[in-house]
Specification:
Blueprint (H helix, E strand, L loop, with lengths): L2 E6 L3 E3 L3 E3 L3 H13 L2 E5 L9 H13 L18 E7 L7 H7 L8 E8 L7 H8 L4 E2 L4 E4 L7 H9 L1
Parallel strand pairs: 1-4, 1-5, 5-6, 6-7, 6-8
Antiparallel strand pairs: 2-3
Length: 166
Amino acid sequence: MKSIVIYFSRADENYSVGYVDKGNTEVIAEYIKDITGADLFKVERKVPYAKDYMTCIEEAKIEKQNNERPELVNTLESIDDYDVVYIGSPIYWGTMPQPMFTQLEKLNWNGKTVRIFTTHEGSGLANVPSDVKRICVGANVLDNSLAIQGSSVYDAKEKVENWINS
C-alpha cells in the first residue's frame, strides 16, 4: 500500500522549545517517512506566519475566527495514488492551522485510510480528529490517533513506530 504524509509544520519560534530550524510536526512526518517509505507533502502558507510565536498565534487566531482558507505555496491536487494518508499538524487554537483546511478540503477522500498525528504542548489531539472526520468524507479515519509533545519530538521515533505498527 502506498502512503503519503500531508502535514503543516512551522520552524522559527515555537512554544516551549524556542527557535528551531525545523518544526516539530515535520520531525514526526520524517519519522513516518523513514519507517513506512511514505511520500511527504508539506502544506505551506503563501504568506508565512510571523517568526515570533506570539505574533504567529495571533495571526492564526484571526484566521480561525474568520474561517479563512489562506493561499498556499503549492497545492496537492490528488491523492488518487495513495491508500493511506497520514495527516499531521500542530495545534493552533484547538485544531489544525487554517492552511491545512485549505489543502484537505480540495481532495477526494473516498476509499482512503487516514491516520492523524499532532504535535502540541498540552493540547493533545484537540479537535483535530473531529475536524478531519468532517472534512475527509468517504475515508476510513482511524481512531488511534497520535499526539506527541513538541518538546519531546526528538525522543519520539520509537513511539511513532509503535503507533504505525498498532
